[in-house]
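Rotation project, supervised by the postdoc (A.L.). Task for the rotation student: set up a whole-complex structure prediction and record inputs and outputs verbatim in this book. Inputs entered:
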Amino acid sequence: MNQSISPYHHGDLRNCAIIAAAELIESIGSYDITISQVAKRVGVSTPALYRHFTDKDALLTAVRELTHLGIMDYITRAQADIEHGTLAHLDALGSAYLRYATDKKAFFGLMWEDHGDTESRRAEARAKRTGFQVLHEAIELYLQRHKPESAGESLKTATLMWSTAHGIATLQHNRMLDTFDEDADAHTLLRTATRAILQSGE
Amino acid sequence: MNQSISPYHHGDLRNCAIIAAAELIESIGSYDITISQVAKRVGVSTPALYRHFTDKDALLTAVRELTHLGIMDYITRAQADIEHGTLAHLDALGSAYLRYATDKKAFFGLMWEDHGDTESRRAEARAKRTGFQVLHEAIELYLQRHKPESAGESLKTATLMWSTAHGIATLQHNRMLDTFDEDADAHTLLRTATRAILQSGE
DNA sequence: CACCTATGTTAACGGTGATAACATTAAGTT
DNA sequence: AACTTAATGTTATCACCGTTAACATAGGTG
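Outputs recorded:
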């Protein structure tokens, strides 16, 4: 874990701790980690981390910033070769969201679940060019092309599509989606919902 | 907390502990409670609870059974004076789900979030006549009346409507729904989604 | 060099879930 | 009624948790 010349002072503890925490979260598949586990992984005593993070939640908040980069990566890759504002584009965005939720289970939970500081979660979600904004723009484009009379509804429509994707992702994340319909498939459901929402009112 | 004649043996510790845990969860608005807090509330030593629950998760699982009764209560009341299988009926069911999620925040989280034993959560959701089954029957009725050609899709449609309601409820639960659209209203969104899903394909 | 600040260390505190060893009572058998 | 046993309480204890305090070491600046 990237240590300086000195055996006493680490040199880059803050960043290394964040990365170590992220690795740990990913490896155990849960963000229910321990400060001591992180410290041990970096090769440092537990209280050393309190020089760089006011408390455990501050460390998790720092990891959460990485997760937003991660989901943007999924989204960017998903829409790389797709014409923006098409139905296929919206499918790709939804699909990326679902895949992130299952691939990076613990990060997805860390991003949204209600532990610790609520406000930092909201701030982080808004801070950068997030997945939501990409979705919003894609929907705006789609509506302008195919349903110009509903173009003013793009924000509401984006919120609704996000909610639907999030519900499907969350239920799958918590292994609940197939509780009642054992054949339920997240991607199929979302494609159905996408079409229903976009053609509504016609 | 209902004690027997003996000052030593409690008499009904198991049930009292479940109720005390539920009260505690409701009062602090989180299911992140402590065995000791529950024990103190019942007036008993902490390890006494381990005679009745194998571990903390077992106690929470017992509380979760109560929460399913609670949400069924919301649903039953919501549909009391409404003709089944109508659009108004579906609105009422969705509305009840959203209200439960905000009114009984901690219970809602306890019901669905991924802590401890996954299988007990699935089992509990399936065990009784749950909210989902009510929703499923209502949709079946609605489709038979208004869209008989889609009657075979009732299970998929119910899963989709549940997912959507769940997504909206979860985002609101985690105070994320208005992150991007500050005017977002859960009930309005769900009504829009309900109509979109039901009329899709026409 | 002297000093200050940043950043490590070990020691300790109260609280946690959980177990072990022991105490008390209720219930059943004779 | 007396003895046994199982159920269900108790206190003592464990390892671990997040966190703070007190102390140690290094690097940078006068």
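Student's summary: The radius of gyration of chain B is 20 Å.
Supervisor addendum: Chain B has a mean pLDDT of 92.
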